[in-house]
Model the fold of this input.
Amino acid sequence: MILTEEARMVRDTALDFFKQRSPITALRKLRDDKDPSGFSRSLWREMAELGWTGFLVPEDYGGSAFGITGLAQVMEAAGRTLVASPLLSTAVLGASLLSMAGSEDQKAEYLPALVAGEHLFALALEEGSRHAPTRIDLKAERDGAGYRLTGQKTFVLDGHVADTLIAAARTGSGITLFLVPADAPGLVRTRLTMVDSRNAANLGFDGVSGVVLGRLNGGADILEPVLDYARAGLAAEMLGSASEAFERTVQYLKDRKQFGVAIGSFQALKHRAAQMFCEVEMTRSAILAAVSALDQGGNDAAALVSLAKGKANDTLFLCGNEGVQMHGGIGMTDEHEIGFFLKRARVAQASFGDTAFCRDRYARLMGY
Done:
């Protein structure tokens, strides 16, 4: 549970890169300009050149297979400046789904372009307002040698910009994954306006043609480990956001004066800041344990990931709320950046498992 020298180098490079190339003002500009992509494509190409898109891709297809521990360092750094990018949808979900489930032809076709930053992916999974990976009603019906998909998907991360969608559909009594090109006839993509200014879309499938990814009726077996990569990566991003919100709040407590003294000298605020510090550090330990277990193939990886994501949910919620409250009136304004962390917390908490989901899953995995 100690970062290797290579992982520390990745972390330091990512921290400097995002601080210089994508501060929170960049997210604000994307939001205010109503950017059609919702992220900087030039920044994404630079991230690909740094090799970050290939951390979960085998070397045979242009990746480095560096692992989720390294990618988590990038995502934690991105969380500090609330970077809007396809890291989660493409570098984590797309890369791991194709690497684990793709045929040799599919890997050869898609993975090199993914690593190069030239092809974006999105996982079309959810169909309701809460994370429920096995509650799938999207239907896939055989049509000659292929399948046609009919139904709806909601809150698909980067769904309106993805070049290829990976849709989870019901095939008889099982779940199967399908590759669907973004320009497929019958596919309707509706971009959503998210409170955290990130990309998401609702998708409508009306007899859309799809190609099987992996085994027929084997989608659930693939989704389980892949979603753990997503939960761990998102937890790392949330840790970065929580750490930044905490540090900004502590600095404000030192700078803001009342009655001639810094408000950070007030005992009640000291206690609240101390609680945030403790929660951030416990979350950091939980995430490092989770990503280490994933990279090492540990039997306890799923439980540790559930613990890490549940902890990250609560910690970012706490730091986002406390950050706004301790900043006082200015913290409630859009002009001040602290509120962006609170907004990000609301969406990230609900993505790939809120705290109730993670606690329930952890309890079941531990035999309760």
Remarks:
- The chain is about 50% helix and 15% strand.
